[in-house]
Amino acid sequence: MKLAWGALAGFAAALAFLAICVVSLSGDWASFFSGTAAEKMGEFIVGFAHPATDPAFLQKLGYATLETLAISWLGTLIATVGGLVMALPAAGRWGRVARGLSRLLLNVLRAIPELVWAVMAVIAAGLGPFAGTLALAIHTTGVLGRLFADALENVAPEPHASLRRHGTGAVAAFWYATFPQVVPQLMSYTMYRWEINVRAAAILGVVGAGGLGQMLHFHLSLFQTSEAASVLIAMIVLVSLVDALSNYFRKRMTA
Amino acid sequence: MHVAASDARGMAPELRDPAWHGRVTIAIVFLVLLLPAGYLTEFNPATLWGETSLRALKQFVGSFYPPAASPDFLRLVLEAAWKTVAIATVGTAIAIAIALPAALAATRILSISRIATGRMALLPAVVRTGIRWVLIFLRSMPEIVWAMIFVRAVGLGDTAGVMAIGITYGGMLGKVYLEILESAEHQSATVLLQNGAGRLQAFWYAALPVSLPELTSYTIYRWECAIRASVVMGFVGAGGLGQQMELSMKMLAGGEVLTMLLVFVALVWVADLISAFLRRVLA
Amino acid sequence: MQPVAGPVPGDAALSGVRVAYATGDAALIDVTLGFAPGEQVAVIGPSGAGKTTLLATLACAMQPAAGSVRVLGVDPWKLPAAALHALRGRLFLAPQLPPLPPRQRVVHAVLAGRLPQWSVWQALRSLIYPRDADIAHDALARFRLEDKLFMRCDKLSGGERQRVALARLIVSNAELLLLDEPVSSLDPALAHHALEVLQDEASKRGATLVVSLHAVDLALARFSRLIGVRAGRVVFDLPRAQVTDEHLADLYGAELNASLQGLPDEPVAVPKLSRCT
Fold it and tell me: Which of A37, A38, B101, C73 could pair covalently with B154 via S-S, beta carbons 3.0-4.6 A apart?
């Protein structure tokens, strides 16, 4: 019975917290369910039912889709290399100080969302897909670097120790004993991140970093709902395609 | 002693690496794909060292220090941070309100028609599949896209953020609730149904208690994600910390950006701690 | 370098050696042994007797708490770090569980034995296209595994993995070969054959061979000098002809009693593939 009372108290606390949250939000609920909002949503729905399909637009859309794919792919690739480089010190291979410092840097890269990095990248590299690629690469380096470092730290030490005992150099021992053990994890982490990054690449354009997001932002701002609908369809298709590809590669490479 | 025919060094067929051709092919495909990717992303690190962009970045980053700390600004930031938490919380509540009934209606373990025949009748099967499709639709678009649509439809503000979280997370929670309910032990629910209990009774007295800790734990984890998401959604005008951050970034007010980034990191960290604590209590 | 006073001058010698575990318990107590160049010796004894520690001490992998070690003419623990590492390139210790990364291919696992002789670039290039595949092939062929050259290590059975680790020893050009239970996962016929290959190789290159064995019959059949170890001490160190049933009963008596009391026996089963995905 004690447990039930605890659960009940927890539930009540959660409800109270929710109530405070509801009250503290600016209560434009009325406008959300107002006639004008409903009318506008209706317009959107009607527009979405008729996606734009004229050839010139579709060509632009196709290009933006490829651009998004390229951003996600290149961003993930750069992050894989960067993550691997950062993982070596972060796994404590070059001492405690290097480990602490590199982990701190990885945490900073990881804690700041892609979108915030994208805004800064746009300032540095100008509007366009290059900024998006940079933003993804920076944030993902933080994520993958941390995961790779943990994988390296958890590896079985015996193969490495045994090679070192025979007088093998540290670099060769790493590539012959430690690295082969973490390959499956590196692959599946990278593929998983690619899936996430293609979703991110699709929306980074909202702040001007290229790809489908930029198109969506543009057309939504002009209330061109049928064009926006086509962009959304392209996003969904691209994301499912990448999911399927990533699944296929992951299965093959970790089998 | 068996000795291999290894006089032709590296040429004997049994010494040829069978994986070599595959590796070369993969490397070539990789390189061939790299070129168009570089072209499409207008990949050109030199722009980073260009006169104008370097100056702009230097100016922006240079203005990061000192972080803005005037009492008025701090009050504004804390208010925005609280808004972010509120958006995430109310959004998650709406998501639960969508996901729980959907999972209840769509789960196979509460099927009554299944009991006698082992198969569901046609109509319930169609309804259940339909609900699953709706859930897929809800989570098919990132929350920020929903937020953009709602911002256009109802104007800037918190409500757009709340609804965006509610809809996307409703889809995600619904899917995971279904998985949790169906992977849990469902003998007791089946027994209740066989004894003539109603679907709701079987849910409250058998299916829910079995899976409650796992359901709650996943919901708390999602709440934590919602806090991150609601910051990001602010960038398209859906309220909270992100909206303030976007304003400051547009004005290149680095000190304000730094303060808000620090508050954001602290917020995520605290949410992470709370979520980890609650999930440990539940486990 | 000061010469170490050992009772038997030779390729490797331990004198009054005491080795302690990290817990402080003694693994070896007052061990004095000498191995002449090119000698082939079997170390036998019950589980936990200290056979593995003895080999690790000879391999300069464990530093004794007391006493002195002399390997290939020098005291390893008086050498500077670089010279010690160079010395290790002339030794080879094969642990009982073959330390092979599961997804590594056999060819690279075997050629890893040559790494001390390769430059870093040669080592990395070999990962892209195996160099000296013929050497790996011939080494595997001696253990009848040549058809496994390009297979992945995790696709092999325990016995095959053990022989791959031995093939690595063949491609190394070490002068002091230390093997810890090298045939524990092999059936008797294969075990005989594998030991024969190792002994041939050792005598061909004039290397000293020290093998710990769980199977006493193998030790008696293949080695002319036997060292019995129990509870961290050398119980006997005799030519084969002088080893009597009494010696053996003495050596293993304690273990028989222990196993009757339900203590775990030394694992002779298939080596576990740790972290195998």
Answer: A37
Q: Does B94 touch chain A (CB under 8 A)?
A: no
Please list the residues that pair with C234 across neighbouring strands: C229
pLDDT in tens, C210-262: 999 988 888 989 999 999 998 888 989 999 888 888 888 888 875 554 444 44
Antiparallel, parallel or unpaired: β C91-94 and C12-20 = unpaired
Say what the pLDDT of residue C4 is.
Answer: 43
pLDDT of residue B196: 78
Share of chain B above pLDDT 70, in %: 95
How far from the centroid of its chain's Cα atoms is residue A189's Cα?
12
What phi and psi values does residue C31 have, to the nearest 5 degrees?
-95, 125
C-beta atoms of C142 and B17 within 8 A:
no
Angle, CA B200 vertex, CA B198 and CA B203 arms, to 5°: 110
C149 contacts in B (CB within 8 Å)? 14-15
What's the whole-model pTM score? 0.82
pLDDT in tens, C158-186: 889 999 999 999 998 888 999 999 988 88
Per-position DSSP letters for C98-132, written without gaps between them: ----TTSBHHHHHHGGGGGGS-HHHHHHHHHS-TT
User: Could you tell me the pLDDT band of residue B11, with boundaries at 50, 70 and 90?
Assistant: low
Return the residue of A nearest to B53 by Cα: A124
CA distance to A11, B282, C234, per residue, from A7 (Å): 6, 10, 65
Q: What is the pLDDT of residue C268?
A: 35
Q: Which residue among A31, A70, A216 sits closest to B145, beta carbon to beta carbon?
A: A216
CB contact under 8 A, B2 and C137: no
Q: For A232, which of B90, B145, B252 is closest by C-beta distance?
A: B145
Nearest CA distance, A125 vs chain B (angstrom): 5
Q: Is the pLDDT of residue A3 over 70?
A: no
Using the beta-carbon criterion (under 8 Å), do B2 and C146 form an inter-chain contact? yes
Kindly determine whether residue A175 and residue C123, on different chains, have CB atoms separated by under 8 Å: yes
Test A216 with B148 for CB contact under 8 angstroms: yes
Structure tokens at B36: 């168009």
- Residue in chain A nearest B52 by alpha carbon: A124
From CA B218, how far away is CA B221, in angstroms rounded? 5
Q: Which of A230-239, B106-115, B261-270, C254-263 has the lowest mean pLDDT?
A: C254-263
Torsion of CA A177, A178, A181, A184, to 10 degrees: -130
Give the ipTM.
Answer: 0.82
Mean pLDDT of B17-40: 90
Asked if residues B213 and B83 have their Cβ atoms less than 8 Å apart, the reply is no
Nearest Cα residue to A85 out of A131, A133, A152, A159: A152
